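Shift notes (night). Ran DUF1523 domain-containing protein while the centrifuge was going.
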Amino acid sequence: MAIIKWVFWITIWVLFGAFLHYTLPQTDIVRITDTFEKRQDFGENSIFWAQADVGTDGTIANRDVFFIQTRRAKGDVMVYRNEDTGWGWPPYFKFDTSNLQAEAADFKSTEGDARWYALKHYGWRNEFMTIFPNAISLRPVAGPDAPEGIPILNIIFLTVLAALFYAVWVRWRRFRRAWIDPRMERIEDDLAERRGRIGVWWAIKRKKP
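Came back to this:
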């Protein structure tokens, strides 16, 4: 049972950590190489795509999606999708997809005349499942070695989340000590008393001729 308990809680925390890693914003230092628009058919990976632009029909099975092609400061290639999140999840309230795409198109540069930008995004890139991180914003930086910035939102969110978990844990401990533990002790004492009575009864019965 102990192994099952540990496996269960480890699985829960790994899934929760993956959820936070996917949802919380991250920043990459990139050089934009191209932008394009592509008709995307959604299948089993539809959960990793956002929604149609706010004000458009989001019920169709496919739609045009903006993409931003980049080369990151480390030299590897990364492609980002550019979709509204609207009022949905994650709660970035992003409504400026078209404006961001226009900015990205204007920010394109070549290796010989590179311009670098801090691209904030959320999500993962997976070639096998055809999923892309979603671009949130762009800001110019001095060069490929520029700092990505302090993740203030992540720090605030994780601090509040840790405080919430701690508050729940403290109240659970108090509740368990005040209500559950005493009742469990009474149940255990009652069972022990009954086992003792049964033992005495059995001992007396065995002594009888």
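The chain has two domains: 25-149, 151-209. The mean pLDDT is 86.
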